[in-house]
Amino acid sequence: MIGLGSGSLDGVWTDSGLWAAVGGHVNAGAGIKIADIDSGLDFSNPCFDPTGYTYPAGYPRYDNADDARLVTPKVIVARAYFRPDDPPQYSRDARDDPFSVGQGGHGTHTAGAMVCNYGTVAPAGLDHARTAISGVAPRAYLMCTASCIGA
Predict the structure, then answer these.
(1) Interatomic CA distance for residues 2 and 72, integer angstroms
(2) What's the half-sphere exposure (Cβ side, CA atoms, 13 Å) at 14?
(3) DSSP letter assigned to residue 103
(4) 16-52: per-residue pLDDT in tens?
(5) What share of the chain in percent tops pLDDT 70?
(6) Omega of the bond prior to 60 within 30 degrees of 0, cis?
(7) C-alpha distances in Å from residue 42, one per residue of 101, 112, 149, 151
């Protein structure tokens, strides 16, 4: 829809438009750090597989030693920016749960739309079959800056 190319991500893909302008999907987003402020992130989602990434200078960053387990060379920040006297209140229904793939997982979904690794095989959902997907900037780093939780 935004002119990244044509074909099948798990087959033959021809870069065009934006991806062609940046040197193809293998370079799209390279070196860019993107923050996702949303309902949380499922760090175990294959979209955020750190294979082939290294931490950029000055990273990883996280709030406390317990959060160190959440960062990877792909997800380089795990921080929550809440006022201590007014933490967020979640309804904790499926729309807010980052692990609820079939029902919500909104933060995981929005982060994936931005930085999901090229050719990641996504599980079947309510409106699609199992398929290969990619974020718009698949080589970008992700900074989870909201309710960052891990598996």
Answers:
(1) 29
(2) 2
(3) T
(4) 888 888 888 899 999 999 988 876 777 788 899 999 9
(5) 71
(6) yes
(7) 10, 10, 7, 6
Both tokens of residue 101? Answer: 């793939």
How do residues 76-103 score in pLDDT, each as one tens digit?
A: 998 766 656 655 555 555 555 545 544 4
Could you give phi then psi for residue 26, rounded to 5 degrees? Answer: -70, -15
Angle at the Cα of 111 from the Cα atoms of 2 and 143, rounded to 5 degrees: 120
The whole-number pLDDT of residue 151 equals 40
Task: Rounding to the nearest 10 degrees, give the CA dihedral for residues 15, 21, 23, 28.
Answer: -80
How far apart CA 146 and CA 122 sit, in angstroms, is: 23
Please tell me the distance from the alpha carbon of residue 147 to that of residue 88, in angstroms, as a whole number.
9
Sign of CA dihedral 141, 144, 150, 151: negative
Amino acid identity at 148: C
Measure CA 63 to chain center. 19
The pTM of this model reads: 0.79
- Mean pLDDT for the chain? 79
Encoded tokens for 31: 């070196």
